[in-house]
């Protein structure tokens, strides 16, 4: 019986357990994937803790995880796009990718390009689709200046690169230990915290757009900087949409194979990097989430079954 992460009730990381489960069977239109890498995301911690129960309720026992990359183990009826042995990357909406075997729909998978690591492929979907959606939401083009909060995080690192590719000047808010990475990827790194507005003005002058990948009071900071609400996108402060008229476009706005295929092609061409902070074995899922929830990691943390 293959192992998978499960939790029986809402709670801290200690509720996460790795247990043996029944082998998944791919239904019509589905593919069974033997997972080689699966990214983890802050939103999964919020779901596990019950803080998003109204929007994303859990059915117990609950699995966990969306991102995945691996090798096709079996195909269901009607699947022509993939064959046993194909290397793929993609996602599942069934909270199931933190496992050895995952059954997901074929249209949620794309071929993994040669030369792209399992870790980068397995961490791409949530952060990549979210970053793609945020950059699109604020309408970046050449000559714009955009501020990105949590610019060194999983979403922020990818949004920084996509915004630079769109021709924008990027002001990346991050702790000083991550400034070197941001600057090497074309951003102007600025320390977050008290006095950030003054430091941003000194670095950039006028700000045209703001991508908030952290929450807290960053929407208010964007408004203080004079950014129009329609050019502010937050993936963490959903109440700000009603209060200020800002956007809250994230992963669900770009969660499709076309976007994933485009991001994977950029990875393969060296036009996009998914920085991997650390890879944990599946049975160290608790330790992995402790690191994620500390929110000081550069890039992504990955599980390897």
Summarize the structure.
The protein is an alpha/beta fold and 305 residues long.
How would you characterize the overall build of this protein?
This protein has helices spanning 42-49, 118-122, 125-137, 154-165, 179-184, 196-204, 218-224, 239-244, 257-268, 285-294; strands spanning 3-6, 17-20, 30-40, 67-75, 87-91, 101-105, 109-111, 145-149, 169-174, 188-191, 209-212, 232-234, 276-281, 300-304. Strand 11, helix 7 and strand 12 form a beta-alpha-beta unit. The protein has two domains: 3-124 and 274-304, Alpha-Beta Complex (Quinone Oxidoreductase, Chain A, domain 1); 127-252, NAD(P)-binding Rossmann-like Domain (Rossmann fold, 3-Layer(aba) Sandwich), CATH 3.40.50. It is built from ten helices and 14 strands. The model has no long low-confidence stretch (mean pLDDT 96). It has 305 residues and is an alpha/beta fold.
CATH C-level category of the largest domain: Alpha Beta
CATH architecture of the largest domain: Alpha-Beta Complex
Overall number of strands: 14
How would you name the CATH homologous superfamily of the largest domain? Answer: Medium-chain alcohol dehydrogenases, catalytic domain
**Helix segment count?**
10
**What is the domain tally?**
2
Could you state the order of secondary-structure elements as H and E?
A: EEEHEEEEHHEHEHEHEHEHHEHE
Shape: globular
Helix-and-strand structural type = alpha/beta
Looking at how many chains there are and whether they match, the oligomeric state comes to: single chain
Kindly report how far apart the N and C termini lie. Answer: 13 Å
Q: Portion of residues in helices?
A: 25-40%
Indicate the low-confidence ranges by residue numbers. none
> Biggest sheet: strands, sense, closure?
7 strands, mixed
Mean pLDDT: 96
Strand content: 15-25%
* Computed Rg: 19 Å
CATH domain topology of the largest domain: Quinone Oxidoreductase, Chain A, domain 1
């Amino acid at each position: 019986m293959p192992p998978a992460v499960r939790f029986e009730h809402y709670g801290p990381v200690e509720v996460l357990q790795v247990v043996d489960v029944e082998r998944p069977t791919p239904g019509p239109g589905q593919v069974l994937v033997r997972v080689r890498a699966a990214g983890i995301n802050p939103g999964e911690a919020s779901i596990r803790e019950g803080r998003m129960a109204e929007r994303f309720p859990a059915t117990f026992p609950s699995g966990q995880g969306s991102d995945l990359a691996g090798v096709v183990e079996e195909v269901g009826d009607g699947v022509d796009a993939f064959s046993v042995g194909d290397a793929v990357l993609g996602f599942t909406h069934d909270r199931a990718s933190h496992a050895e075997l995952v059954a997901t729909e074929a249209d949620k998978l794309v071929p993994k390009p040669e030369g792209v690591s399992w870790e980068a492929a397995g961490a791409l979907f949530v952060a990549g689709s979210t970053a793609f959606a945020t950059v699109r939401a604020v309408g970046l083009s050449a000559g714009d200046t955009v501020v990105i909060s949590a610019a060194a995080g999983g979403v922020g690192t990818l949004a920084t690169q996509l915004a630079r590719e769109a021709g924008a000047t990027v002001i990346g808010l991050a702790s000083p230990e991550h400034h070197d990475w941001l600057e090497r990827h074309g951003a102007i790194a600025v320390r977050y915290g008290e006095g950030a507005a003054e430091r941003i003005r000194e670095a950039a002058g006028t700000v045209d757009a703001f991508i908030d990948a952290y929450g807290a009071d960053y929407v208010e900071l964007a408004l203080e900087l004079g950014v129009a609400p329609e050019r502010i996108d937050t993936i963490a402060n959903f109440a700000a949409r009603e209060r200020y008229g800002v956007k809250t476009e994230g992963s669900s706005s770009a969660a499709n194979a076309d976007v994933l295929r485009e991001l994977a092609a950029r990875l393969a061409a060296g036009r996009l990097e998914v920085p991997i902070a650390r890879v944990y074995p599946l049975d160290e899922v608790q330790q992995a989430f402790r690191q994620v929830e500390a929110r000081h990691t550069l890039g992504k943390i990955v599980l390897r079954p």
